[in-house]
């Protein structure tokens, strides 16, 4: 029912990375990925540096490798897409393991996979070390417009409301002898889906009104001190600094 | 259709970012008229629903899959400006937090999936409502058609970006046919879900549907002789 | 005859690690009406949710009419045990009141006019027949509670379990509900904080505190036992005296002829 | 002195077209404690939600301490009027009990140790201090209600409005809440179906039925007026007699010296 209690993506650990203010982490991720994306075509060594850098962050944040690998499943659609490239791209062909593939397609696929994957892992690390509530706080500190912060606040809350109400409805159905295995009963589920939207909305509306009753003005009061010190910014800057230096070096040595 | 990091080259990603920033800026100004104390949570709920819809990936053909976009639904429920902001928020959270769609491609994703869908979808709804009978229920078929068309329109916008800044060297014609073809099918699913949701909300809480707001009813006053 | 309900050594912890039940033993005979009393957070709701297998997976056993509450019997048990939840919003989920009340009997296989009659009858019992076509979430809290009771009555369960049924009901509805319950020849387990109501309806009461049953006996005796009462945060409300109450209305309580 | 609360000709229909209030008039003086009685669906909650501008847009006016409840004053009014909602799940939304109770005072600008003290004090008042770090949605219903009361007490409102505060509370908590309320020197409006509780706490009562105030007077007189009571589905509970109750505990009710 309530906002931002532990999210399933969040790993509750005490670590250096967990303690960093959220705004520092968000800025670091965005800058890091930007540096990665601007890596020139033709250099491959920078990706090794990026992987090492992310590996260091994962270690410092105590995020285990299996967790990261499991969550990388989100990439599947674009991995599939990358696999098509070497077959479908025009240009000179090469032979790899007996398959005739497009050389540029192969290179493109490699770059796409490398850059995309690094972006995905950076996000996974952010999510594993930052609670949704803190993400909001961080975006607020980074001056994301108030209206967007507000919509996002409610969105996080409603995701929970929707899950909570779905669960209540399921228990209510089953307690009254509902048998989800019958096909005819799909209709019931579809029917209650319409009610779900309104029910969630009205629950959320009442909660919102209760918040207003207690003086809510659209900004959540900040209990934890989310101010960031220069030291913390410096620490968070390590990751993007490494990446930017690498990219610059790659362009220089091209 | 979430564009990952590195799929579109850096200069065009910047162009996408600029378009998105301007678009979101316009929406922020416009949304002030749509949002009040009560509709702010509705916007959040719509965002949560769009979020859930976009999780529904369904296979379309030969290993490709598409997901719902939710732009028209959002625009019909909370207005076009706020609707675009809702989808923007969803895309931002997905990029930063769920690793779905690249952080650097966020501008492009917002342009194609938040701005184009709401502009096209809501535009069609407004157009059709002018043609259909002036009843709240008319919004349902209008939303159906709006959703149906908004999805391939968004795919088309994506192909546009690809034509100008694609990094993968695939032939433009092939990409065009594949993207638009897939998204015509996705559009049908989107249309059905949009119409169902809007339909159920219109019957119970017509006041929650932006596109049908503004109906007043006279209040009755009773006088009583008080006892005690 | 097998007992209607047998709970043996039931212990349970919520997924967050908080243990709520520490070995509950309770046997209820067929046709008995038993009140479950106890302070907030004692574990009453947790116990109730075990009676038809909504919660489970801890230690101990629950059996309904001889049938153990296990995955394989759960469907049959849910036909027999009707639960009115503490929060009516947990109970109501269909788009209209009528559909909501019809949901249970329809799952039992009722159709057509028979189903319609069953629904109408239950709604009349709780005085909500004229609200049949409204969405439940647009009713007042007390109206929702009345519909929640109707959804379970319509299933004609063998065992009726009510979690604080009288809260948020207006005084007349409260009395009407008492009349309905007194007229049902079935086993009733009622969680309540309303001690006069318990006395009126249930000859027997148990006190659950801190996850165990700490007292079990005649409701009248319990309410008169000041030491036990205060030990478990039970107090008689302002202006209520069980002795004088029982001398006025003895009919309600079969154990005091 | 201006009255604490003035409601005049208030009419309101819900968005689905259902009219709930048909012209409510009510004046409450500063420091008065007034019970709002009436059957389920009478419009009590709807009235309550108008008192700080949560609902609005119908006909009529509401003024708090002389200030009309309009968009421009709404923030000031919400500082002054504290509402405990009928459903605690509507009230609690933060990740921990402590943060939830701190939410209101923090919005009023309190910080640091002052805020912590305020939160602790409110939690002690309702007996929930040891639950400060648990998530509210993992509490029992009665515990949630107690926290809901604490969230509002922590704001130290001038006018306290409670919608069925005693429902789902165990008897001791109910009495403790009565003690807290009796000790607060502020205006209190309490919606309740618990007539003995109303008599104990509020010298004055109004009856709301079908969207209008149909009676207004001393609680004792109302409860003894059988004709009015039955006309509005109010009945005294089993075993309760206001006459004998008042002779036992007159202190609670200042109007009966
Ligand atoms: N979902 C949950 N997760 C964790 N702990 C819970 C949960 N629900 C209840 N509890 C805890 O379990 C204990 C028993 O709760 P339960 O709801 O059974 O109490 P109850 O006797 O029904 O109280 P009440 O009279 O207030 O309804 C309480 O201490 C409560 O805090
Ligand atoms: N959200 C809503 N939409 C439409 N109608 C509503 C809504 N909420 C309440 N009503 C209706 O308005 C009337 C007054 O409801 P209200 O909740 O104010 O009653 P109440 O006096 O608080 O009742 P209770 O004692 O049961 O809490 C009822 O007839 C109810 O059905
Ligand atoms: Mg309970
Ligand atoms: Mg109410």
Q: For the largest interface in this structure, which chains are involved and how many residues does each contribute?
A: A-B, 72 and 59 residues
Largest sheet of chain A: 2 strands, antiparallel
Q: Cofactors and ligands present?
A: adenosine-5'-triphosphate, magnesium ion
CATH class label of chain C: Alpha Beta
State the assembly state of the protein chains: heterotetramer
Annotated CATH architecture of chain C: 3-Layer(aba) Sandwich
Radius of gyration of chain C, Cα only, in angstroms?
Answer: 18 Å
Number of strands of chain A: 2
Can you offer a commentary on this structure?
The complex is a heterotetramer, with one copy of chain A (254 residues), one copy of chain B (228 residues) and two copies of chain C (257 residues). Chain A is mainly α and 254 residues long. Chain A has helices spanning 16-19, 22-37, 45-60, 65-71, 76-88, 103-129, 132-141, 146-175, 186-213, 230-252, and strands spanning 93-96, 99-102. In chain A, 69% of the residues lie in helices and 3% in strands. Chain A has a two-stranded antiparallel ribbon. In chain A, strand 1 and strand 2 (99-102) form a beta hairpin. Residues 1-6 of chain A have low confidence and may be disordered. Chain B is mainly α and 228 residues long. Chain B has one domain: Arp2/3 complex 21 kDa subunit ARPC3. Chain B has a two-stranded antiparallel ribbon with strand order 1-2. In chain B, a hairpin with a 2-residue loop joins strand 1 (57-61) and strand 2. In chain B, helix 4 runs antiparallel to helix 5. The N and C termini of chain B lie far apart (70 Å). With 257 residues, chain C is an alpha/beta fold. Chain C has a single domain (5-248), classed as P-loop containing nucleotide triphosphate hydrolases (Rossmann fold), CATH 3.40.50.300. In chain C, helix 4 packs across helix 5 (141-153). The radius of gyration of chain C is 18 Å and the shape is globular. The two termini of chain C are 25 Å apart. Classes of the chains: A mainly alpha (254), B mainly alpha (228), C alpha/beta (257). Chains in contact: A-B, A-C, A-D, B-D, C-D. At the A-B interface, helix 2, helix 5, helix 6, helix 8 and helix 9 of A face helix 1, helix 2, helix 4 and helix 7 of B. One adenosine-5'-triphosphate (ATP) sits between chains D (14, 16, 18, 20, 38, 40-46, 86) and C (138-143, 168). One adenosine-5'-triphosphate sits between chains D (14, 16, 18, 20, 38, 40-46, 86) and C (138-143, 168).
């Amino acid at each position: 029912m309530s906002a931002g209690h532990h999210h399933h993506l969040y790993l509750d650990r005490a670590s250096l990375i967990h303690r960093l203010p959220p705004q520092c982490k968000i800025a670091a991720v965005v800058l890091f990925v930007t540096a990665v994306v601007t890596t020139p075509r033709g250099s491959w060594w920078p990706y090794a540096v990026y992987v090492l850098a992310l590996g260091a962050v994962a270690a410092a944040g105590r995020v285990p490798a299996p967790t990261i690998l499991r969550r990388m499943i989100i990439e599947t659609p674009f991995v599939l897409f990358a696999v098509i490239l070497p077959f479908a791209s025009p240009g000179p062909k090469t032979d790899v393991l007996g398959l005739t593939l497009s050389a540029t397609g192969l290179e493109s696929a490699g770059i796409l996979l490398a850059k995309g994957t690094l972006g995905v892992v950076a996000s996974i690390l952010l999510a594993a070390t930052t609670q949704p509530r803190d993400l909001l706080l961080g975006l607020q500190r980074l001056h994301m417009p108030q209206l967007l912060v507000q919509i996002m606040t409610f969105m996080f809350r409603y995701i929970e409301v929707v899950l909570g109400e779905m669960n209540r409805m399921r228990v209510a159905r089953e307690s009254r002898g509902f048998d989800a295995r019958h096909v005819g009963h799909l209709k019931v589920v579809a029917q209650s889906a319409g009610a779900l939207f309104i029910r969630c909305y009205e629950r959320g509306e009442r909660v919102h009104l209760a918040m207003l009753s207690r003086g809510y003005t659209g900004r959540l009061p900040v209990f934890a001190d989310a101010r960031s010190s220069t030291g913390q910014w410096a620490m968070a800057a390590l990751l993007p600094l490494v990446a930017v230096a690498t990219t610059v070096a790659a362009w220089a040595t091209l | 259709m979430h564009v990952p990091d590195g799929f579109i080259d850096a200069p065009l990603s910047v162009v996408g970012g600029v378009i998105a920033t301007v678009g979101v800026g316009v929406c922020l100004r416009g949304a002030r008229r749509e949002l009040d104390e009560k509709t702010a949570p509705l916007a959040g709920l719509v965002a949560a629903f769009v979020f859930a819809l976009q999780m529904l990936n369904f296979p379309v053909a030969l290993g490709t899959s598409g997901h719902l976009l939710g732009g028209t639904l959002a625009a019909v429920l909370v207005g076009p400006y706020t609707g675009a902001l809702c989808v923007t928020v969803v895309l931002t959270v997905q990029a930063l937090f769920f690793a779905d769609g690249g952080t650097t491609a966020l501008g492009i994703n917002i342009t194609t999936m938040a701005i184009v869908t709401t502009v096209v979808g809501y535009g069609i709804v407004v157009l059709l409502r002018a043609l259909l009978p002036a009843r709240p229920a008319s919004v349902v078929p209008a939303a159906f058609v709006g959703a149906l068309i908004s999805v391939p329109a968004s795919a088309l916008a994506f192909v546009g970006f690809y034509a100008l800044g694609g990094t993968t060297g695939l032939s433009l014609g092939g990409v065009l046919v594949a993207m638009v073809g897939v998204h015509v099918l996705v559009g049908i699913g989107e249309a059905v879900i949009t119409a169902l949701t809007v339909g159920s909300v219109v019957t119970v809480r017509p006041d929650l549907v932006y596109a049908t707001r503004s109906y007043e009813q006279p209040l009755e006053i009773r006088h009583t002789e008080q006892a005690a | 005859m097998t007992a209607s309900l047998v709970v043996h050594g039931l212990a349970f912890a919520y997924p967050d690690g908080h243990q709520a039940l520490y070995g509950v033993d309770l046997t209820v005979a067929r046709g008995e009406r038993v009140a479950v009393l106890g302070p907030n957070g004692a574990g009453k709701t947790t116990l109730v949710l075990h009676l038809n297998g909504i919660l489970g997976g801890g230690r101990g056993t629950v059996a309904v009419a001889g049938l153990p509450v296990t995955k394989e019997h759960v469907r049959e048990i849910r036909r027999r045990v009707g639960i009115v939840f503490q929060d009516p919003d947990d109970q109501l989920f269909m788009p209209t009141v009528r559909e909501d009340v019809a949901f249970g009997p329809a799952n039992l296989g009722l159709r057509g006019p028979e189903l319609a009659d069953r629904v109408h009858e239950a709604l009349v019992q709780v005085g909500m027949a004229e609200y049949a076509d409204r969405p439940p979430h647009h009713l007042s809290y007390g109206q929702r509670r009345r519909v929640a009771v109707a959804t379970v009555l319509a299933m004609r369960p063998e065992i009726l379990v009510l979690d604080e049924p009288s809260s948020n009901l207006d005084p007349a509805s409260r009395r009407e509900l008492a009349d309905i319950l007194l007229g049902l020849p079935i086993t009733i387990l009622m969680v309540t904080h309303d001690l006069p109501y318990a006395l009126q309806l249930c000859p027997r009461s148990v006190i659950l505190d801190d996850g165990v049953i700490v007292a079990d006996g005649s409701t009248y005796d319990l309410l008169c036992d000041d030491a036990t009462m205060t030990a478990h945060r039970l107090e008689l409300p302002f202006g209520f005296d069980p002795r004088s109450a029982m001398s006025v209305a003895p009919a309600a309580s079969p154990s005091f002829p």
